[in-house]
Amino acid sequence: MRSLLLLATLLLAAPAFAAKPNVLLIVADDLGYNDLGFQGSTDIPTPNLDKLAAQSLVCTNGYVSHPFCSPTRAGIMTGRYQQRFGHENNPAWLPQDTVAGLPLTETTYPQLMQKAGYTTGAVGKWHLGAHPQFHPNKRGFDEYFGALGGGHQYFPGDKGGVEYTIPLNRNGKDEPQTKYLTEQFGDEASSFIGRHAGESKPWMLYLAFNAPHTPLQAPQKWLDKYSQLTDKNRQTYAAMVSSMDEAIGAVLMQLDTTKQRDNTLIYFVSDNGGPNLQAKSGSNFTSNAPLRGAKGMVYEGGMRVPFLVSWPAKIKPGKYEQPVIALDFLPTSLAAADSADLTPKNLDGVNLLPFLSGEESTAPHDTLFWRTGGPGGNNAIRRGTMKLVRLGKAEPELYDLSTDISESKNLAAEKPAVVQELVAAIAEWEKGTIKPIFESPKQGKPAAKKKKK
């Protein structure tokens, strides 16, 4: 009888650790590497993200797969380098265009999580195609609320370009914006978590803020908090970061209130580094210190980002120093869901769980790659601590990130054999990529526009 009672007690205690975890993926937009408290910021306090960081493995060599918006999101949604399927640029806002978006040939993260038994939801910025065929509900999300384009005005009724003033969208139907957008996205995410608390099915939620991406617009209460900042752009940007931090805090509180926090796997990243808007604004109001470069560049400041992984039931907080990439979220989530058998064979991401737990002491990736501008554009490769940068037809540059995180000392002349090895690795990797299938709007007339229906 005592044995039976003990067994019953163990079974009752087991679900928090044995049940499939919920998955919450939070993506910021154009966030500076050094603009969070846990990253070293001294002028933008972020208490909620700092608290999450204290409960997480902080991946100090965490990357996204591209230095600007939509391609990074395409990589996250597929677990594959987006150059493999031609999604290397930002799609123009062309609702009639059936090419400019995440190709329908790609299997998506939420589709696989659905197969693993999850209810899937997305809140926020989409930016993976404007045609109805690319809608989140068509790509694996059971529920969606957000802005389908690449950005949006933050306050209801504000004027701007077409893409930035389209109505918000809930499951394919227009819906009005009711408040400051960052706050509204936070409310929607909290509502999703509350609605699905206690259900037999676990959930996956993709919370994609457009903050702190331009336009620079912030609530007065946060502007007042940063009145000491003399640079008005920096003041507004800081207020936007704080508003996002507050919204994330509310989402985390909802997890705690509904007693789901321990068994929720949380990822947090920015989609790329902070932009360098010096030419437009007269001040570079984001900080990627101590990294070199900014959004759009293949130096570290373009794609090395704040990167958190938290799962209290399974992962001990601390720091993880090996290079990891947002492509890893998909296979890691499937493994956490005890559904690794669903993992496609063609992924570039890997299951991080054995590495983050210490079960595996080797690095998750031997080599990481980046490219902008298609074949012949700008490339970067990281192997171990060595990073090679090749800007178009310019001579390659080589840096040792273990001693030179700022990429300030070019070692190419000192280490020609390493340069040769990494250039050859890029050439081999590029054999598995294709040319971009559409162009970014600022590069001219989108190629896909010719094929509209």
Observed structural traits:
453 residues; alpha/beta; Alkaline Phosphatase, subunit A; Arylsulfatase, C-terminal domain; 2 domains; 14 helices; disordered N terminus
Broad shape: globular
- pLDDT < 50 stretches: 1-17, 443-453
Q: Provide the gyration radius in Å.
A: 22 Å
Report the span from N to C terminus: 72 Å
Number of self-contained structural domains: 2
Question: How confident is the prediction overall: mean pLDDT?
Answer: 93
What do we call the CATH topology of the largest domain?
Alkaline Phosphatase, subunit A
Helicity range of the residues? 25-40%
| CATH homology superfamily of the largest domain | Alkaline Phosphatase, subunit A
The computed structural class is alpha/beta
**Strand share of the residues?**
15-25%
Number of strands: 16
Short description:
The chain is an alpha/beta fold.
Walk me through the structure.
With 453 residues, the chain is of the alpha/beta class. The chain has two domains: 21-356, Alkaline Phosphatase, subunit A, CATH 3.40.720.10; 367-451, Arylsulfatase, C-terminal domain. The protein is built from 14 helices and 16 strands. The chain has helices at residues 2-13, 15-18, 47-54, 69-78, 109-115, 162-165, 181-195, 220-225, 232-257, 278-281, 300-303, 329-336, 353-356, 416-430, and strands at 22-28, 57-59, 62-63, 119-125, 143-147, 168-170, 173-175, 203-208, 264-270, 307-310, 318-320, 324-325, 367-372, 378-383, 386-391, 397-400. Mean pLDDT is 93; it is low at 1-17 and 443-453.
